Amino acid sequence: MDLIRDVLDNQLVDRNQHKIGKADGIILELRDNQPPRLAYIEVGMPTLMGRLHPRLQRWIIALEQKWGAKHSEPLRIPWSKVLDVGIDVDVDLEGEATTALTWEKWLRENVISKIPGGG
Amino acid sequence: MNKILMIALGILTSIGGFLDVGAIATAAEAGSEFGYQLIWAILLGTICVIFLVEMSGRLAAASKHTLADAIRERFGISFYIIPLIAEVFVDFLVLAAEIGGVCIALQLVTGISFQWWALPVAFAIWILLWKGTLGLIENGISTLGLITLVFVFATFKLHPSLTQLGAGILPTLPREDVTHYLFIAVSILGALISPYLFYFYSSGAVEDKWDEEYIGVNRMIAGVGMGFGSIVSLGVLIVAALVLHPKGIQVDSYEQAALMLTETFGYWGFILFAASLGIACFGAALEVSLDTAYIVAQTFGWNWGESLHPKEAARFSLVYTVFVFLASLLMLVGIDPLQLTLFSMAITTLTLPPVILPFLVLMNDKSYVGEYRNGWITNSVLIFTIALAFILAIVAIPLEIIGG
Fold first, then answer.
1. How is domain A3-114 classified at the architecture level of CATH?
2. Which site among A7, A11, A41, A56 would you substitute to test the B interface, given the most B Cβ atoms closer than 10 Å to its Cβ?
3. Whether the predicted interface score ipTM is above 0.90
4. How do the domains of chain A map onto residue ranges?
5. Strand pairing partners for A85?
6. Are B318 and A112 a contacting pair at CB < 8 A?
7. Tell me, what's the pLDDT at B404?
8. pTM of the full structure
9. CATH architecture type of domain B3-403
């Protein structure tokens, strides 16, 4: 498998085929005297912005902590949870139970449900 | 659904959805100022857009990826951020112009200034997106757009000279106003080769769950639908050339353009023009709003889908909600809709290279399109279109300043 081609920037879906974000970053673990190990897929706006520019990353973290759901921690999905790498990357998680959908849930409860027809 | 019915419906919606504020404004201006001389620009733009729309649909059907998904995946965020920002910016201007088109249509009919219509129109767009489904928007609204065929009908009633029409097929330079002529040519191409079409079409195809069986359907819809659609655009140009050009009326506001159907239909021509403009722009405004929500949601991997209930795709629904109302503010403050339209067409051409260039890689990458990758004909047209896009992007701003 080619990590950059097949995993990085791919769509992540949970076990119910719900979209939970994109593979914004890939974390390798370096170990003494052993080859590096694939540790996590990272999901979150700060990780993504960090790939563009560190300053953008700082801004988005400040913004996410100050407003709305006040959550900016990226979600780390252990590689052992990855079920399949195809058109999407399937992970063995319940999207709603992870922090990947914190903002989606916050907006649903605090904004969308307040608009007529959105509840 | 029955394949033949699907193709027929797809072709109908392409014809009904072909015209938007940019196509009407640029074709009317071209016809009123230069007669038939710019017909070639509409034909050239149509050929480019047919091939690009076909490729967007084929990419979606073969790879199950939308264009936005595929570009981020294949090129990474560091490249994708460029077409993304360009597209959202252009969508914003174009959406404001489309809302302006609907407002002007209402102003023509009611006499109440277009600014007052900005918020009601934005609200009508929003409620359809909020409550409606993709099927309603794709089929219902675009089928209403078939009213724009009045321009084709008027063309036949006015009996244009075929030899003169034929002369417009080959590009020639006018004796005077060369920069203005070139500026309008660029605007026509910018209006027809709209990037939002490609993102929107591929997202719709994925939302409708297209697979390899749809490759043929897709080719028919893109080729025949867009081909017939461009006849409506040609109709606007020809009618403007026959009615406005001899009287020396230059289209510098929509009120003047509205006169073009009165020769054929009398008072009703005025109403038919307003209805065509209003419906065409309303349909396009729905598509542009949705397109923006599609690409933003696809960029970040959020749940998206026009047919989903807003609470199932909260961030997606919020994007179009905010976007529609922000864009309507440009009309509320009274920016001239026609000027904004011509300006945003020129800006669109600036964004074409980063949007079109990725097609060349994606449509030849076996890991995306497999056996359905481009052949030499599609690749030749694509390379020609990319070269054209670069030329347009370079000349658009200088021409805007000198000839706009």
1. Roll (2.30)
2. A11
3. yes
4. 3-114
5. A89
6. yes
7. 62
8. 0.94
9. Up-down Bundle (1.20)
